[in-house]
Amino acid sequence: MDESPKAWRAPATIKRATIYDVARAAEVSHQTVSRFLSGFAGIRPETRMRVERALSELNYRPNMTARSLKASTSHRLGALAYDLYEVGPNKIVQAESQAARDAGYVLDIVSLDPFKEDEFAAAIDLLDQNDFAGILANAPTDQLRRVLEQTQFSVPLFLDNEPEEFENESGIEGSSATGTRMIVEHLVSLGHRRILHLTGPLQWVVARNRGWAYRSCMQSHKLVAEELVGTSWSAAEGFRAMQAFDLDPGITAIVADNDQLALGVLRSLSERGVRVPADVSVVGFDDIPEAEFFIPPLTTIRQDYEKIGRRAVQSLLGMFGAATEALDSNTTAVSLVVRASSGPPPATPRS
Q1: Are 86 and 80 in contact (CB under 8 A)?
Q2: Cβ atoms within 10 A of the Cβ of 279, count?
Q3: Which pairing describes strands 106-112 and 134-137: parallel, antiparallel, or unpaired?
Q4: CA 267 to mean position of chain CA atoms
Q5: What is the SS3 assignment for 135?
Q6: Cβ of 142: how many Cβ atoms within 10 Å?
Q7: Using CA atoms, how far apart are residues 157 and 37, in angstroms rounded to an integer?
Q8: Minimal CA–CA distance to 115: which of 193, 204, 46?
Q9: Which of 155, 36, 136, 126 has the alpha carbon at shortest distance from 96?
Q10: Quick one: pLDDT at residue 11?
Q11: Do 136 and 77 meet the contact criterion of CB atoms below 8 Å apart?
């Protein structure tokens, strides 16, 4: 028997379970776990049971020592933002800032390009090195979401991005899916049967969710889904995609994934001599301030950016027990705005 002294080894460190581990175990999104921990009531009973079971099996314990130290000494929240020159992200950050002030906090903003991975590390380091009580982040692209989910922050992190609808078990449909259903139902009610969908870039969860809802809604009406994949959210991309597309005369409506894409579509159709809405209806998503001044004024989905921003702040505050009000169980933050760009299909197909 070998009795020579053994080299001493430190005991293995047990990795603390995160909400992302819980989400994987419960087969739900991390947003559902965050909502559960924040006391949100509008979660399906069967989903709630799965989350509770996963929390118990993984012995999930929030790092209350670090959180209480931060929360007791800091009244600052960090926000990871992107594309602040665009209407949606800008208005959401404004709403988050106001909601933080209302709760007695100051919101500090760190911005990055969600497609430039070389910017991720510097932005994350800046967030983690500051004296924040918690961090808000919107991860619109797959690359950024993966990096944030794998980062161990010293304070609570609330990732405010939509879950993938095809795997969403929370019973709460996101704004992208709800809004897209409204659009398709509007066009079907007008009599359209061939509706083309121009997507946003599919690296974005919201673009995939809008595509999922479009296909689901078309299938429910026993209609054939026809999609054209876009590579960006710009008006230039809407114009390029439509110019390169052989528009079948039987297509009588086009759903663009945002208003900028729709603007490019309108110009392309105008250059072809296709009348909107007499020949083809065109609808967008977001209701940017310029949408009502397009030619013709654009039918679109209006997003309640203030509600989205305030809900994100309340979710984060709830993660360390600082929420000042209960989370709103009415999650609908979208509405249909009907303008002149949509109408009934033509009585006879255009030539």
Answers
A1: no
A2: 18
A3: unpaired
A4: 28
A5: strand
A6: 14
A7: 13
A8: 204
A9: 136
A10: 39
A11: yes
- What are the pLDDT digits (tens) for 117-136? 888 888 888 888 778 989 99
| 293 CB-contact burial (10 Å; exposed 0-12 / middle 13-18 / buried 19+) | exposed
Burial classification of residue 311, based on how many CB atoms lie within 10 Å of its CB (0-12 exposed, 13-18 middle, 19 or more buried): buried
Q: Which is nearest to 55 in space by CA: 87, 90, 20, 3? A: 20
Domains of the chain (ranges plus CATH)? 75-159 (3.40.50.2300), 175-304 (3.40.50.2300)
**Residue 329: its pLDDT value, please?**
53
* Residues 6+ away with beta carbon under 8 Å from 210: 176, 177, 179, 180, 197, 199, 200, 257, 285
Instruction: Report DSSP letters for 47-84, one per residue.
Output: HHHHHHHHHHHTT----HHHHHHHHHH--EEEEEEE-T
Q: Distance (Å, rounded) from C-alpha 187 to C-alpha 111?
A: 37
Spell out the residues 6+ positions from residue 22 whose beta carbon is closer than 8 angstroms to its own: 30, 33, 51, 54, 55, 58, 60
* DSSP state for residue 134 in the 8-state scheme: E
Structure tokens at 54: 């996963």
Closest CA to 291 of 255, 242, 268, 258: 258
Coarse DSSP helix, strand, coil percentages of the chain, rounded to the nearest 5 percent: 45, 15, 45
- 123, two tokens: 């932005």
The reported pTM is 0.77
Distance CA 255, CA 209 (A): 14
Nearest of 137, 11, 156, 9 to residue 70 by alpha carbon: 156
pLDDT along the chain (351 residues), means of 10: 40 58 81 70 79 84 50 78 87 94 93 86 84 88 86 85 68 85 98 98 93 97 97 96 95 98 98 97 96 98 92 86 61 87 91 70
Q: What is the pLDDT of residues 235-290, one digit of tens each?
A: 999 999 999 999 999 999 999 999 999 999 999 999 999 999 999 999 999 999 99
**For the range 127-131, what are the long-range contacts, defined as Cβ-Cβ under 8 Å and sequence gap of 24 or more?**
127/78, 127/80, 127/153, 128/153, 128/154, 130/76, 130/78, 131/70, 131/73, 131/74, 131/76
